[in-house]
Amino acid sequence: MSGPLVVLVGPMGVGKSTVGQLLAERLGVTYRDTDDDIVAEQGRTIAEIFVDEGESAFRAVEKQAVHRALAEHDGVLALGGGSILDADTRALLAGRRVVYLSMDVEEAVKRTGLNAARPLLAVNPRKQWRELMEARRHLYEEVATAVVATDGRTPEEVTEIALDTLELKEA
What we know:
By secondary structure, the chain is of the alpha/beta class.
């Protein structure tokens, strides 16, 4: 199967971008983030897309970006936190090396402050984060070939665990 060597999924703020860059470096491949693709293509932030057009419009743009990246990219790919909500995307992830980076709400608070700059957490961040995770956790687990808990771990430690779990050899 062509496409990414490794795909990272998980909630916002879990460290997909940081770990993705470290993994790519260690494996001697390129890194790509579909959220970055969307911002570059749309010329505005994800929060602006949410505010201007709503979540469903953003999800349609996200689905296209993810499907394009899965077809084009052969390195390490990080997907936006909600990309796994789409059934077609989940189907495209089947048979691929997918690492679900997990964290609990207390870790999320430490890392992101659960601030209003994240459109899905604008009203009651802790409650909304818990609800998002309750709705999404099983989907992350469904697509994952490996789960790496990031709580209390450095990005380097998470990267090492992911490499060991996937039994990938460094370049």
